[in-house]
Write a structure and sequence with these properties.
mainly alpha; rod-shaped
């Protein structure tokens, strides 16, 4: 029974860490490219490439 709780804790910790990392990257990307979202903008391609990293 304790093994189940340990596995559940590990899985929840992993999922929470992944979610925090994902949200941090999205937030950081929005700060960098906040003003250059239109497709006609000269910086659009640069932001699009940076997002893939």
């Amino acid at each position: 029974m304790e093994l189940q709780y340990i596995l559940l804790a590990v899985i929840l910790t992993f999922c929470t860490a992944w979610l925090i990392r994902y949200l941090y990257r999205e937030y950081r990307q929005n700060l960098k490219c906040r003003n250059y979202g239109c497709a006609g903008c000269a910086f659009y391609e640069k932001c699009k490439k940076a997002r893939k990293k």
